[in-house]
Amino acid sequence: MAARSRVVISGFVVLMSLALLSGSICSAEEESKESVVDHVLTLDHSNFSEIVGKHEFIVVEFYAPWCGHCKSLAPEYEKAASVLSSHDPAIVLAKVDANEEANKELATQFGVQGFPTLKILRNGGKLSQEYKGPREAEGIVSYLKKQVGPASAEIKSAEDASSLIDEKKITLIGLFPVLSGEEFENFTALAEKLRSDYDFGHTVDAKFIPKGDSSISKPTLRLLKPFDELFVDSQDFHVDAMEKFIAESGVPTVTLFNQDPSNHPFLVKFFDSPDAKAMLFLNFSTDKFDDFKKNYNDVAVLYKGKGLNFLLGDLEASKGAFQYFGLSEDQAPVILVQTSDSQKYLKGNVEADQIAPWLKEYMDGKLKPYVKSDPIPEVNNEPVKVVVRDSIQDVVFNSGKNVLIEFYAPWCGHCKKLAPILDEVAVSFENDADVIIAKFDATTNDVPSEVFDVQGFPTLYFRSASGTVVPYEGDRTKDDFIEFIQKNRDTNAKPVSVKSEESAAKSESPRDEL
């Protein structure tokens, strides 16, 4: 059976990567199944458990041969593996081709939703953590060396503090009268759990820490951050309470989306949050930028903790987001709210003094959702019919036809490969008035998410004339599509005999299937 590949997308990956993604597809080359290619170990479904089980610490990259980001990472990953192989103890880097059909169960097991995904596996694979470090060799080496040391570094001097604390990142410091007791044990457990997300340190002398009260007399967790009030303390050392404290205090009141790579970890948190998201995009060099920033920040403070997170994006850095949301630069300054159920609310060419009243209307439930749609095509006479959001009701839901619809992205290589096959399928049904083959650009039109679950490209669904909706998950050949449509079409609609050249050949000359 052929591999049913597609580009998998998730919130932040889409927004940060759309402008960079390549539409080209590279065929996978065969690799030996238990071998070391230079310094990177190659794993697959047959040797994964055995090899991972031998290591207390191993890093595994899940990749796809066609993925442009994976190709960019490959030489950096190899350089890092070479350096880390001489570390004491050696740090092993490995890779798995997650595009191979036999390895897809592994990818599912480790929650792989996009490529490349890197996992840190500890204790023979019993503990899995996301790799959240840099993607260039020097940064990979530095990050992983910290990951194999103690989860929290003891700070015995101002120099120790200076080497640990990065003013552009969040750092968590445990301040203790003595390095023992329940609070210290809970702090150490938390550091081990969250070590891939944050840098941790601990000390018995608060004067070494550059921010905050130095006369601490009881156990205190201090969160240092490069935004808002710069530090905040908590003295509740229950693990759940510490996690909540970090989650709430470690997010900026307004997340900046600009060219500064140090902001990327905060962007990841913003887009991964289940809360609704308010996003204001404008040119940061505009004369009115300070007015926009102040008004927007005031509103963000007002609604903090009320289920709405805020982002301020520069036009130049946000082009991928603009493409994803179907916005154009002539709409800027533009404010957009996206809810957890993917509804959108939008106001283009907004003025600074309109931000607060518009968001109040949103919070009061007085705004109508914005639905993104391309214009309905005036001419639609190609074999595969173009469907947009404004026409999907008529063509798919109300037409009384059996419709196979593809949700695609113009940059998606798998979609480009599928296009001529769907054309052939559509031509095969051109004399059948009860069948429509359609395509829907999911990057410029909002997908009706209450009906179709589109998590990657291409995604295909079939809706029968009587209204039954099923996903298409079969092989992507002309004959497989035709067989699926004939099997699932509404029995009330009279089927038309459709025979492809390949089917005819089979009937005339039976042969073994490989």
UniProtKB/TrEMBL annotation:
UniProt keywords, alphabetically: Disulfide bond, Endoplasmic reticulum, Glycoprotein, Isomerase, Redox-active center, Repeat, Signal
GO MF, one example: protein disulfide isomerase activity
EC number in record: 5.3.4.1
Annotated disulfide bonds: 67-70, 412-415
Keyword field contains Isomerase: yes
Source species, domain of life: Eukaryota
Predominant localisation class: endoplasmic reticulum
Gene3D superfamilies: Glutaredoxin
Bias (Basic and acidic residues) ranges: 499-514
Annotated signal peptide: 1-28
Keyword S-adenosyl-L-methionine: no
Region (Disordered): 492-514
CDD domains listed in its UniProt record: PDI_a_family, PDI_a_PDI_a'_C, PDI_b'_family, PDI_b_family
One Pfam family this sequence matches: Thioredoxin
Catalyzed reaction equations: Catalyzes the rearrangement of -S-S- bonds in proteins
Protein localization: Endoplasmic reticulum lumen
One GO CC term on file: endoplasmic reticulum lumen
Domain Thioredoxin stretches: 19-149, 362-490
GO biological process: protein folding; response to endoplasmic reticulum stress
Family that this chain belongs to: Belongs to the protein disulfide isomerase family.
Name of the protein: Protein disulfide-isomerase
